[in-house]
Amino acid sequence: MTTPTPENIRLFHEPRDVLRMTVNDEYSVVQVEPRWAAPLSHPGQLLGLMNSKGEEVMLLPKVASLNVQNQEVIQRELDRRYLTSTVHKIVSAKVEFGATYWTVITERGQRDFVVQSLQENAQWLGERHLVFVDIDHNRFEVPDLDKLDPQSRKFIDSIL
Amino acid sequence: MPSKDFDKLRDFLPLSLRRNAFAQGVLCLLPVMKSEPLQPKESEPNSTGALIRLVADLLENGDYGQRVLEVDSDNVRILEMNGALSATVPIAEIHNARNEPVVGGGRLEITTKNGEKLALISYTHTIAARFSEAARGIEQLAKGEELLVNLKPQKTHCEKCKRLLPEVDGVCPACVDRGKTLLRIARFMLPYKYWAIALASLAFLTTVLNLVPPILQGRLIDEVLQKHTNLPLLFQLILIWVAIALTSSLINITRDRIVAKLAGSIAADLRATVYRAIEFLQLTYFDKKQVGAIASRVTTDTDRVWGFLVEGVPYFLLNGLMLIGVAAFLFWTNWFLALCILAPIPVIITIAVRFWKPMTQMFYKVGQKWARFYIHLNESLNGIRVVKAFAKEDSEFDKFTRRNMELREAGVKADSRWFTIFGGMIFFSSLGTIICWLVGGAMVVRKELTLGEFYRIHAYLALIYGPIQWFAAVNNWFSRAMAGADRIFEIIDMEKEAYLHDNGLKLDIKGEVTFEDVRFGYDKSNPVLRDINFVAKPGEMIGLVGKSGAGKSTTINLIARFYEPDSGSIKIDGVDYREIELQHLRRQIGIVLQEPFLFNGTVAENIAYGKSDATMEEIVEAARAANAHNFIMMKPDGYDQMVGERGAKLSGGERQRVSIARAILHDPRILILDEATSSVDVETEKQIQEAIGRLVAGRTTFAIAHRLSTLRNADRLIVLDRGKIVEVGTHEELMEKKGVFHKLVETQSEIQEIIGFDLGQAEAAK
After folding, report:
1. Is B254 helix (H, G, I), strand (E, B) or coil?
2. pLDDT surpasses 70 at B641
3. DSSP for A135-160, written as a single string
4. In this structure, what is the dihedral angle of CA atoms A37, A38, A44, A49, given to the nearest 10 degrees?
5. Quick one: which of B98, B296, B454, B456 could link to B214 by a disulfide (CB 3.0–4.6 Å)?
6. Does the pLDDT of residue B615 top 80, yes or no?
7. pLDDT of B387-402, one tens digit each?
8. SS3 at position B24
């Protein structure tokens, strides 16, 4: 069997909403799930394609190594699987009654959320990389504090 | 869609939906089209025609927004907020429906009878559990069953202030009735009401006595010092002063002793109440919270409340009386001067109120930095062997330095700000004194005021500015105490296990265990057990088998009623076990865990944990049956040997045998063995297996074992895969069947062969 490579695979939805992969038109993996190996520390890199048993079929170094058509298909699938929001701006943040209340603007729009126990739920993934996990386990990522506007940074700086 | 637009739409009548227009095919996917707006309110089944109506919080493109899932007896529909229909799936064509967990949320997936998988609608974690319940409802409808789902609307925002709630269906901390909370915490003072009254009386006396010395000093100045005569009056006034100082000291000592008594007693009562409440909380609560966070409710929150009760309330009284008393004296002495010297007070109050909140936030941040610092310190010291083994001292020191610097910066910033604000307050306080000298001095020169009166006013100044600063801070103190009290009452009021005041059956069970259509998930949006049906007869040994995550441990958690099924029922001797008194039920269930937990105490105390009235002979007998007696006797103190925290002074195999002895003495009708022999050496395992052989005799036993060969003696094996039973039978039957169990055994044998091969290679290499 030919080993799958970014060049010899074709990704498509068949049947609807089921991602399928054929390798060199030789064989198909009928149900494929894309999974980032390290979505927070290495975004956009190392994408695993897993079969229905949860076994890795192949590991792509970058989505960009696929052709445009495959990239579009895989992006659609990734958009469905990863609902973490990236914070672009912090509108307000305040500590009250032992919890922190945040209003943020993300790539998905504006959202209010509450974080309890910042020690556990504000996770530092680097010196300037932060992820908030709210009371419902929704995640809000700040990939780089330095890329936020001064007011947003001030909010974070005043609390964390 | 912005919420204000959404709110506008609420006023419209519900759209009469095109029930069958799109139901011609298996699925009709439609471009979003303009249509009448629909009623966006979520509803309970049957309230608006639709059986299920849920509003999702993500649009098709992943943006935040609202879409509606609507289910009736014929179709599942997805509607956009403008009323346009995006998708319809006829119920008759649905094979199954499920919530597919994704990172940060979930999506509703439907598999049709012709194998198509449809990802219908996505949502965040906030509402995933409700969509999981909806998926279950869709499956019930597809199977032609009665719709039995719980879709009670969630409360995420406070109805009064619209603030986001810190917990779904929780209490709004901003709108909580503080009066009511105060009354509830005041009840903790009831058993000590006479002491509290004494405390208040002494506070009043202290205030009165504090007002006297300046009067005496004023008289001394006016009637003795300025006149250069009347020594008898000097002695007389000094004598009164000494008497007052002595009385005042005695009162203060008595008051502080009462405070100590009240503080200790109320703190103990509060801690006991909270601990007792925590003991009976459902395990789901412990799954969500870290032990440290729970413990802080017993320590920090109770501290805040008693601190307020014991120190806040009396000082509120004391300082309040002091303020009124001193102000009255000042105005009585000279109203004009009083007005002048009190002029800076509004400024001081404004500063305190204005800066208190930012200051609190800064100290909160310092707390965060301390926590990070502690975590690093704790980790690096606990893992010092690993640090040394990998020669990572330098990188660990770098991390330490970063945390240390963060802490320093936050601390310096907060303290600098605090001392600046405090300095400002001190300045305005000293302005009062300066004004006193300026205006009062001029009045003395003009003989409008005697020197004694001036001195008295000056002395009272010190008594007025202290309470003022205290009152400026008390609001924050009060808020923190009320927040602490709310957290305490949240636990006290939380739904408990049906332990206490349970009018359940006191059934002496024989041991028949029946699972009927059991479904359960720790996260209700993601069931880990589905459609579980089996009957274990009394005395039967059932082996639970499956890959990691198949649902074995969850099954035994349900049997022990640590959790209850989300749907379906578990029956003991034909009775739903929710009808049996919980404590009575658990007394008849024994558990031996992979990592047995022993309490810090003697070996004998641990063996007798489930039967505190056991005689020493019974304890020894149980230990013998558990193959533990010999090793216990070899300990210096035998059965009185302390086992240490979590049994740390015993080896893994010893702990396990003590826990088996504990289970034997407990004499349960239903026994649960969870990987009881997986972490011990071969010789110890043999001894434990023997002990287990004696333990299981005559009891209904559920066993999980990593080594499948150890379940050979089980009467039946239940094979679980992804939360469902896939095979049931004896070891031989399942091996012959060559199904999932056979494959598991084969895989395990292959691994053992590989290990054996490697060992052989190693031996050969030697």
Report:
1. helix
2. yes
3. TTS-EEEES-GGGS-HHHHHHHHHH-
4. 10
5. B456
6. yes
7. 888 888 888 899 899 8
8. coil
DSSP for residue A40: T
* Domain residue limits, chain B: 3-142, 178-331+470-496, 513-765
**Beta bridge partners of residue A32, listed in sequence order:** none
- Identify the CATH number of the domain defined by range B3-142: 2.30.29.30
Complex prediction ipTM: 0.92
Cα A104 from Cα A113, distance rounded (Å): 8
Q: Best of B4, B58, B89, B125 to disrupt the A interface by mutation (most A CBs within 10 Å)?
A: B125
Question: What would the mean pLDDT of B519-524 be, rounded to a whole number?
Answer: 82
Convert the pLDDT of each residue in B378-387 to its tens digit: 888 888 888 8
Q: Which residues of A touch B (CB under 8 A)?
A: 15-18, 39, 79-85, 94-99, 101, 106, 108-114, 116-120, 124, 127, 135-139, 158-160
C-beta of residue B678 within 8 angstroms of C-beta of residue B707 = yes
Judged against a pLDDT cut of 50, whether residue B43 lies above it is answered with no
Q: How far apart, in whole angstroms, are the C-alpha atoms of residue A73 and residue B428?
A: 69
The CATH label, of 3.40.50.12280, 3.40.720.10, 3.10.520.10, 1.20.1560.10, for the domain at B178-331+470-496 is: 1.20.1560.10
Put simply, whether B409 touches A (Cβ < 8 Å) is: no
Say if residue B536's pLDDT is above 60: yes
What whole-number distance in Å separates Cα of residue B297 and Cα of residue B486?
A: 10
Cross-strand bridge partners of residue B718: B544, B728
Strand partners, B96: B111
Measure the CA dihedral B117/B118/B122/B126, to 10°: -60
How high is the pLDDT of residue B14? 33
- CB atoms A136 and B124 under 8 Å: yes
pLDDT for residue B226: 85
Query: Domain B513-765 in CATH: superfamily?
Result: P-loop containing nucleotide triphosphate hydrolases (3.40.50.300)
Please answer whether residues B57 and B126 qualify as being in contact, where contact means their C-beta atoms are separated by less than 8 angstroms.
yes
